[in-house]
Design a protein that fits this description.
eight-stranded antiparallel β-sheet; 3 helices
Length: 130
């Protein structure tokens, strides 16, 4: 089921605020998928999903090289959502602080890292059933 990312229902927003891990899928240069478990936050006003990570991680390196198609998917029984769009990596301290605060609200306070970066996905499509 396709969901308008500009106007998600309350059920979708509730599901995106609950504590669920997800999988992030990116495509390596050789065409093979890179899938990794992540925590993420979603900001519906800007249609942005954010994943905090460290600069040496493969997901960070893949999205630093160039903007990249990405999907983040969370599943809970029969409920699932996939958010897809274009991912970019940033080390901007303001974006990082916001992403850390949103992560802490959804999951727990992450450990401090000097090499923290944020992968931002500009969500242009949401599919699923919340």
């Amino acid at each position: 089921m396709s969901i308008n990312p500009s106007n998600p229902s309350d059920d979708v927003l509730t599901f995106l605020a609950e504590r669920h891990l997800a999988s992030l899928t990116l495509v390596r240069a050789d065409g093979t998928p890179h899938v990794t478990p992540v925590g993420f936050s979603y900001e519906p006003e800007t249609r942005t999903a954010r994943i905090i990570t460290w600069s040496a991680s493969l997901k960070a390196r893949l999205t630093t090289a160039a903007p990249l198609a990405a999907a983040v998917c969370q599943v809970d029984g029969g409920r699932w959502l996939t958010l897809s769009g274009t991912a970019r990596c940033t080390d901007d301290p303001t974006i990082s602080a916001d992403a850390v605060a949103r992560y802490a609200a959804r999951y727990r306070q992450p450990k401090e890292r000097d090499d923290r970066v944020v992968i931002e996905i500009e969500v242009d499509r949401i599919m699923g059933r919340a």
